[in-house]
Inverse folding.
């Protein structure tokens, strides 16, 4: 079931639709925390608390945390493993996106499923992440 943007915002945030430039959600298990942003850097980022990493080669130019955060920009041609020095947001402030639910905000669509979370941009590029395996496309 696809949630309209305003309905999704009403379910995930207390702020009115027009005033919001990001939303936070988490998987029902709590292992995945995501933010979708429609600001100066539109896209989606998801952080994982526990995983068996599919990507193990840290880029030479990353001296921060790497391997458990994933990003897709609104205009990106491929999802990426993010080099980050922070967390995407507060899990206490994020609402649960139940399995089988779809959330679209700006040019990003994310779906929560029992097998993990997938986020894509309008061009179909993005990532699918689960505890056992992470994919970029």
């Amino acid at each position: 079931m696809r949630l309209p943007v305003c309905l999704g915002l009403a379910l995930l945030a207390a702020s009115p639709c027009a005033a919001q430039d990001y939303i936070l959600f988490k998987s029902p298990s709590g292992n995945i925390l995501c933010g979708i942003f429609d600001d100066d850097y539109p896209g989606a980022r998801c952080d994982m608390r526990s995983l068996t990493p599919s990507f193990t080669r840290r880029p030479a130019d990353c001296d921060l945390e790497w391997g458990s955060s994933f990003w897709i920009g609104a205009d990106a041609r491929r999802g990426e493993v993010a080099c980050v020095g922070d967390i995407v947001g507060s899990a206490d402030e994020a609402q649960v996106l139940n399995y089988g639910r779809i959330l679209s905000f700006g040019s990003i669509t994310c779906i929560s499923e029992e097998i993990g979370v997938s986020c894509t941009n309008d061009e179909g590029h993005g990532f699918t992440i689960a505890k056992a395996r992470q994919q970029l496309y």
